[in-house]
Amino acid sequence: MSPSTSRGRDPATAAGAVAPVLTIDGPSGSGKGTVSRMVAHALGWHYLDSGALYRAVGLAAAWEQIDLSDAEAVAACASRTVIRFDGDGEGEPKVWVNGKDATHQLRMETAGAAASAIAAHPPVRGALTDLQRSFRADPGLVADGRDMGTVIFPDAPFKVFLTASAEERAHRRHKQLKEKGVSVNFDSLLHEISARDERDASRAVAPLKPAPNALFLDSTGRSIGEVVQHVLALVPESMRRP
Ligand code: C5P
After folding, report:
1. Which residue of 95, 109, 135, 214 has the smallest Cβ count within 10 Å?
2. Residue 90 CB partners (closer than 8 Å, separation 6+)
């Protein structure tokens, strides 16, 4: 997100329908969150972390004690949940869910699993479509998720599919959580991540898969800086921050 951007659920913010979009899709732990934020910052573009929206809805539904398998009830919850991002464009933005700072809770693997469960319901995805598209604004948007290039912004001029081996992704997630003071067992994390990927890739609606015209990047053994440079090279100089 740009330094001044803070989004609520107002679709009226859908200005600049022709603003360029760079989509970065991929499985959990591929590094797409960090890469997307760094690329958005370097370009001076807005940033959409679509996974945070699914996590936020999963959390709001849990707060309301809604059965996560009840597609219609969760979709109704998605429609009334107020999600706000607050950031300076550099670090991870804070995420407010219905007025509560949920930043820390949203990063937990339990929030990821809840997000993955509710994300399989078509009405829930439908309830979040306009909100996601409303982030498209000048001078451009970097959108990170699973279906950014395939469903939400199929006309995006720049598309990347970022992946890494399951082991490496679990190592990265483990390190990230450790840095946040959360201690988790590596083997169970690897198992949870693989199960989540399997569910995301095999679901009927908007499954995790590369858009046909996406640049396929494997970040295994590569530094974040290298991947960022590779992605940035997709965008012509004339469209970058002066
Ligand atoms: O990217 P992140 O790990 O935060 O996403 C959490 C979950 O939200 C994913 O496992 C996936 O099931 C769901 N998701 C999705 N579509 C997106 C972004 C996330 O289905 N565009």
Report:
1. 109
2. 37, 41
Residue nearest to atom 9 of ligand 1 (CA): 116
Residue with the smallest CA separation from ligand 1 atom 11 is: 116
46 pLDDT band (50/70/90 cuts)?
very high
Two tokens, residue 97: 């869910």
Task: Strand 21-25: give its sheet, edge to edge.
Answer: 46-49, 141-145, 21-25, 158-163, 215-218
Closest Cα partner for 26 from 120, 147, 135, 112?
A: 147
Report which ligand 1 atom has the smallest distance to the Cα of 132: 21
Distance 147 CA to ligand 1 centre (A): 9
Q: Tell me the two tokens of residue 32.
A: 């797409």
Looking at residue 18, what is its pLDDT?
Answer: 84
154 token code pair = 């199929």
- Name the closest-CA residue to atom 5, ligand 1: 51
210: left (phi over 0), alpha (psi -120 to 50) or beta: beta
CA of 54 to the centre of ligand 1 (A): 6
Q: What percent of the chain has pLDDT over 90?
A: 73
Q: Three-state SS for 22?
A: strand
Which phi and psi (to 5°) does residue 139 adopt? Answer: -85, -5
Q: What angle do CA 52, 57, 60 make, to 5 degrees?
A: 120
Over 70: is that where the pLDDT of 5 sits?
no
Secondary element (H or E) of residue 52: helix 50-63
- Tell me: the pLDDT tens digits for 192-241? 888 888 999 999 999 999 999 999 999 999 999 999 999 999 999 888 77
* DSSP designation for 131: H
